[in-house]
Amino acid sequence: MSGNTGVADHDELARTTLRKVTWRLGVLLFFVYVLNYLDRTNISIAKLKMQPDIALSETAFGLGAGLFFVGYVLFEVPSNMILYRVGARYWIARIMFTWGLVSMAMFLVRDEWSFYALRFLLGVAEAGLVPGVILYLSQWVPAVRRARLISVFYIAVPVSTVIGAPLSSWLMGFTPWGLTGWQFMFLVEGFPCLVMAFVVVRFLTDKPAQATWLSERQRAWLIAELDREEEANSAGGHRAGSLHAAVRDRGVLGMSFAFFAMIIPLYAMAFFLPTIVRQMGSFSTAQIGWLTAIPVRVRRARDVAAGAQFRPHRRTHPPLRGARAGRCRRARVRRAEPHRVPAAGADRVHAGRGRLHLHPAGVLGARAVPAQRPGDGHRHRVHHRGRQPRGVRLAVHGGPDQG
Questions:
Q1: Which domain holds residue 9?
Q2: Which secondary structure element, helix H or strand E, spans residue 46, and what is its range?
Q3: Of 200, 238, 366, 390, whose CB neighbour count within 10 A is largest?
Q4: Minimal CA–CA distance to 292: which of 177, 394, 171, 165?
Q5: 3 state DSSP class of 393
Q6: Alpha carbons 291 and 302: distance in angstroms, whole number
Q7: 154, 304 contact by CB (below 8 A)
Q8: Residues near 331 by Cβ (< 8 Å), separated by ≥ 6?
């Protein structure tokens, strides 16, 4: 009887501790990522008016949108090396402040070259945020429960689009101080990042040992649990290694390719969906903003939340089943409308949006899975033919760096 009571007490301690961590850190980082994704993709709405104003071609827009990722990739590893040394609290705040400034500076775009430069600088400013957050959460949440919190973080993507697309189109209706609508939109949407940087400094805590908002018992349990997991990973051969070893590991390469394949359609939709909607009929900018939000409306968050069901020992994970289900739904749509030709205007939108809203279903739901560190939860995995699972933790000066 006393044994059952001890297990119940331990489970209750784990629940209350992780609940506090989620509400304190998970919710804060969720809002950070909402602003991050909004400032990263609001050029898709701005394009509707900015493109004719500065004579920007479709090719130039696509190149400028992509240059963001060039700056991001080049400075991602250095950014995470610094984050590991100085701590997440001040470095994430620095990232937010500089990307807010660059995002506001987008109102200065005058031609394609200034567009290229500012998009590249925005990537440099934001570099390392998402991998840094994953690294940070790995230092706070045990692996077996981590996907749930990471899923909360990734729900910011559809929420940002659902809120951001109508908001951006609404802001573009204002032209104060001699500014155009898209210039005003960049100024307004970049400013909250400057404020949020100070909120991060105030409420983010670098390490569990510094968490005064946890009780002493909760803090001791969390530190002991993370230390026990670290020892188990080291004993199982899952230890920090070199970057060279990580990029040669088949598991890391396979998951990187899968994530790469998921990101391509996600950003293709993020950058060009408003343009596609405009070509479907005669709509105002505000109407385009609302129609853009349809494919990733709030109910798509359930697909992201499927990542919370991820367990390292399962061979078939819910997000991957969700991706397969998305393919099946698309196939059913094709069979139901094999000869249908979309009409103009609203009928055309109705015909197209049924397909568009299926697009993010599988993509968003699987995003929490690559965030699981290779080798996490190896104690729970079923070994195939007695072989030990292979995995390498991406390391930057001894710390895991997940992208």
A1: 2-400
A2: helix 43-53
A3: 366
A4: 165
A5: strand
A6: 20
A7: yes
A8: none
Could you read off the pLDDT of 300-346 as tens digits, one per residue?
A: 555 555 555 555 555 444 444 444 544 454 444 445 444 544 444 44
Do the beta carbons of residue 292 and residue 281 sit within 8 Å? Answer: no
Q: Do residues 155 and 305 make contact, with C-beta atoms less than 8 angstroms apart?
A: yes
Tell me whether residue 241 is exposed, middle or buried, using C-beta atoms within 10 angstroms of its C-beta: 0 to 12, 13 to 18, 19 or more.
middle
Select from 185, 163, 171 the least CA-distant residue to 296: 163
Residue found by looking up tokens 């995003």 in the block: 367
Count how many Cα atoms sit within 13 Å of the Cα of residue 82 in the half-sphere of its side chain.
15
> Residue ranges of the alpha helices (H) in 236-284?
243-248, 250-279
Question: DSSP class of residue 242?
Answer: -
- In the chain, the largest separation of any two C-alpha atoms, in whole Å, equals 76
CB 91 within 8 Å of CB 127: no
Q: Where are the alpha helices (DSSP H) in 87-238?
A: 88-105, 112-126, 129-138, 143-154, 156-171, 181-203, 216-235
Q: Exposed, middle or buried: residue 230 (CB in 10 Å: 0-12, 13-18, 19+)?
A: middle
Two tokens at 398?
A: 């001894």
What are the Cα distances from residue 180, in Å, to 109, 174, 177, 287, 289?
12, 8, 9, 19, 17
Residue pLDDT, tens place only, 169-193: 999 999 999 999 999 999 999 999 9
**Strands (DSSP E) found in 17-85:** none
Secondary structure (3-state) at 240: strand
DSSP code per residue over 280-312: TS---HHHHHHHHHGGG-GGGHHHHHGGGG--T
Phi (first) and psi of residue 240, to 5 degrees: -65, 130
**What is the model's pLDDT at position 390?**
37
Q: Is the pLDDT of residue 75 over 70?
A: yes
Could you tell me if 92 and 200 are in contact, meaning their C-beta atoms sit under 8 angstroms apart?
A: yes
**Confidence (pLDDT) at 144:** 80
CA 299 to chain centre: 17
Nearest Cα to Cα of residue 310 among 152, 158, 161, 159:
152
- Domain at 242, CATH number: 1.20.1250.20
Number of domains in the chain: 1
- Region of 55 please: left (phi>0), alpha (psi -120 to 50) or beta: left
Mean pLDDT of 53-66: 92
